[in-house]
User: Fold these one by one.
Assistant:
Number 1:
Amino acid sequence: MNQITIAENEELVMKLLHYFISLKGYNPIIIHGVQNEIWLENLQEDYKIVRIVSNYIHNNEQFKSDLFKTKVLMKNIKKRTLSFKMTTLSIFVNLGDNVHLEDFDEDNIAIANVKTEDDLNKYQFITTSFPDINNNMNFKEKGLELFLKLTKDINDKNEGDARMSEDVFSMKKPIITYILIAINVIMFIISMFYNLLPELAVNRYLVTHGEFYRLITGTFLHANIVHLIFNMYALYIIGMQLESFLGKGKYLAVYLLSALAGSVLSIFMSSGFSVGASGAIFGLMGSLIYFGYHYRVYLDSVIKSQIIPLVIINLLIGFFISGIDIWAHIGGLIGGILATMAVGVKYKSTSFEKINGWILYLIYTVFILYMVFNGLG
């Protein structure tokens, strides 16, 4: 097996792929019309894109053309992934001597000419962002044995990613959504025989006099059958998806925290009575946007073409049609985003991110309640 010879630059490419895919969590992305280069993507790293280019580039003119092409593709990836900033590391393993990298200085593209593993040490931006890269480029295996090992590790990593994606996106029975719909329907039926609105609806004066439970109970009441049907249909459509994505416990937490956030902003902006699940439902839409941002490689088109327009349209409706508690909608939307940040997105959120989510959610609710109780609303 070791008698089979693999070209030095091909072996270097395989080692780089092994490092970035198996150890740093980058995923290959398909770029149509591109040859002799591999694009890798990890939106959580300093360099969102890593390019490994084996194509021979002879002079500065060819390199300039390559740079222009890279910028165009980066712009497209930036739009596709809803990224505010796109940084790329381009590693060239077959660059001609007539190419002078000092002639090129790009803000969002770092360029490295790497002929051997030792060349990685020449670039501080590589060793700073990937301090362990050199330690993970040495293997006792040689030749075909090395090739088979690297290929196996990369395939194992890709299979693991596929299992995680299947775990997140496979549909599960939306039990919590069914329960929430049932509670809303039961409360509406009860209110048909016994008016619950004066007892349980959200109201600033009554909340400030100790009836805090109204901040939640009012979100399970509805003014009429049309109000109920509209909200329950929205809850079913959005809830069944989000419950499957987040898991039952996190989904329920996001729903209740969104409802609370909507009620808090409602009593700050209005002194009247408020009822309805729409604040919580807007929170679910905010949650879906936050979840979709983390999984934007899979959901970017859905988020941009369906979820965000749906949120904007419904907010605009609330501004122009009387009788709609627009502030509960806005508060719920904010609460849903912060609550999802706090409970975390599976396989994506860090502990630091979740702690920040809880801090921001508490700042939001406590500050507004402070304003309400001190008569500043």
Number 2:
Amino acid sequence: MSESTKRTELWVGVFVFIGLVLLGGLIVQFGRFGDRLRGKYQFVVVFDDASGLIKGSEIRMGGARIGKVAEHPELNAEVKVQVTLNVDDPIRIPRDSMIQIASATLLGDKMIVITPPPGGAASGEYIPPGSVIQGGGPSGLDAIQNNAESISRDARRLIQEAEGTFKKVDAGVDDIRLATQRLTETLTKINDSILSNKNLASIDRTLAHLEQATAQWATASTELKPTLADARQALQSIDKAATKAGARIDELEPALRDVPKAVASLVRTADKAGQTLDRVEKGEGLLGTLAYDREVSDDAKAFVRNLKEQGILRYRDQETPEEDPRNRFRGRRR
């Protein structure tokens, strides 16, 4: 083999080796072998919705790629989606950072975006490895989409409420129209009946009479002043008389004290009268005999009848024969 052929084979071998080294570097750089060689800073983030996020999705902070999603998102016991993040060493995530899901491409690929708090890592506090923190809502186009959906739902709800309000307004307008019609009818009736010329003339006459009555009342009030003065004097006289009557009552007080004794005497008299009436009812005594003895009653009736017929001077019983007046003047025969 000639020397030129050996040289050519050497250069070919060198180029092949360089190509293999470059290919290995590309594989290590863009494959998963590079990630395995780097140190990992791992923690868990919980999201309400992690749709579109898969294992291997990128993690970016400030636009730079700092890690990947370690595992497929899973549901926890609280029906939330928990995502395990692998962040490259020596990067640390400041505490109170906002962790959100955003769109990586227009095709719908997702990534995780970490936004440090104002001041960055000035506080020197970082999220400890293995921590479980709460993630934020979507950002970027997803946030716009969610906001658009929320606005759309709110707009739909507002439209429905507006339709209900418009229906109520229409019903209110109908009620107002009906009330206006009734008010017009009422005003027409008032104008035709109450506010007619005849009633207005009557009202004018009534006001004129009221004015006359007011004037007469003023005159009567002037004339009543002396009468009121006399009435005041009469009241004063009544007051004096009442004072005197009070004094007389004070004088009568001793006599009034004897009233119970008189009442007791009357009660005793009434008791005696009751006892007397009881005796009369039993036929005892003169009154009882006259009231309840039939023979005595008949004699009394005959006495009264004879007294009426004969008079006091010529009184006699019907059984007594009438005396001849001529016998009074006849002498004894000798």
Number 3:
Amino acid sequence: MLAPRFDGVRLWVREPDLAAEMRETRENRVFLPGFQLPPSVGISSDLSAAVDSADILLSVVPSAYLRGLYEQMAPMLRPETLFVSATKGLERGTLRRMSDVIAETLAPRFPARVCVLSGPTFAREVAREDPTAVVVASSDREAAQLIQTAFSGPTLRLYTSADPAGVEVGGAVKNVVAIGAGVCHGLGLGHNALAALITRGLAEISRLAAAMGGDPRTLAGLAGLGDLVLTCTGELSRNRTVGVELARGRSLDEIVASMRMVAEGVETVHAALDLARKYGVEMPITAQMHALLHEGRSPREAIRLLMDRSLKDE
């Protein structure tokens, strides 16, 4: 998608054997089969060569590996670079948002200009050039506008936001709610249950975002409601798939072992629940998903406990 917009795009691939295959076939047969990479995209497993003198560095690594990767890259990077994070997760233990992890890691060397990119995006649909809209957020308005101009094109539209906290919380916690959506589908529940889950899931995501300094209105946009609806209803959603398979009786370990890509919600649920406790925010769906994923609670029991909660105003 970005290749036509720049003189050169370099793609870092962690696995040397996959990088070599991609250079030969111009296709990522493991993670995105069926799409040809443009000739102008350079593919390398050499991290230093990939990031050398980059004007923009876009990182989409799983949240558990983000800090380690930036620690490894730090000596190779320069302050003139704009950093864009498209990772949708929270760091377990520190409870940091991804843009904070990047800024903290690079702070001993230079103050990094960091943006976050989020919104309703399945990779296959972006790659086949379906119309897609996303948000780029940063406290540095000029940086967000530069990325908006650089990345936008005929089938990818970027909106700017000054609320990285809201955008990142929305992008991370929607994965937890999507696991619940998968449970509803796997149990054979209908549209009523799914609509209720999405709506109440959005409410608790908005509460957490506000407690962390975000604007609740952000969650009514692409990085909140838009991404939540996509991930809860789309069959390409890895997090939804986890919920479906749990409801069908498979173990979490078995499900994760069978997946080639990371379902971020499985790990994010730890940080989301810890943040809810830290800020005194009620997040019942998140709590039940944690119990389902990591405490042995059955899918039907999790649903029952959500429905049996004390009655209250909306």
Number 4:
Amino acid sequence: MQRAAVRDVTYGGAGAIALEAGRYQAIVLPSIGGHLVALRDELAGLRFLREPLAHEGDDLSRYREDPIPYGVPLLFPPNRIADGRFTFGGHTYRFPINEPALRNHLHGFFAKDAWEVTAREVEGESARLVLRRRLRDGDEVYSLFPHPLTLELHHTLTPEGLRHELRVRNDGERPMPLLVGFHTALKIPFAPEGSATDCSVAMNLGPQWELSERKLPTGRQIPLGAMAQAIAQGGGDPFAHPVDALFDAAPGEGPNECSVLDRRTGMRFLYQTDRAYRAWMLWNGDGRSGFLCAEPMTCLVNAPNLALPAAVSGMQALAPGAQWSALSRLFAREEGA
């Protein structure tokens, strides 16, 4: 039996940790948002995530400035908050306007921060890494989000793939808004010398939300376009046109799922998330850059400011002392297996 491994490595000049198990290798950057920046099938040469080194060479300087379009960065809060403001529990939150053209706060905090490594271990065929980011009074982010909290990212790699778990604990004495997601950037095609024309995407997309010129939900649902319909029906072209769209996750049994099939190789990559992520954001940049961001979120974009019931917007509170967690899985398999 091949034993798993957890190793210190260098990625683009940055200190990184590699998890290895079976055919898989995962690379995590504790010093840059705790990002899962790579997931690979080393035997077949498959690369499942959009990696910065494939686009920026050996220099991570641009990635450090904007790490969001690569790997699996945490969004807290996810996507956009109109005017960077909302009121919750009698407190008004004011976030920086970092999307000035649209007057929004975009993508939240923690994505560039250093995270603490709290556990790294190997047990048989399993490699495990745990990262932690605490927020306390005196922290720069605390002035924007005044809640003591603890975030943990648990990565467990086995020959069956990667388990990726987020845990959020409210360490304060009053309820805090829970607004989280991931900006997961899938590489398409993921096979060496592959072509995007060989690939199709399937997702459990539910109703689509109309977005305003500021890319904020209007509160109205609209019919799925042809591209989204094909993806929802199990085989759409991810680059039929540029997309930046918000959907509910369609109800059903089992996890939410985004999968990419490479028909030439017969391999399918699957990204599955717990149902705690009730919405999907889809973004493919200009539609020609070889990636699709399938972004699971616990709430709709701008949820705290929407005139919608919490059951619809996904807006929720985390009680003092309470912990929330949700699991994702990333793995590949031969089609039909």
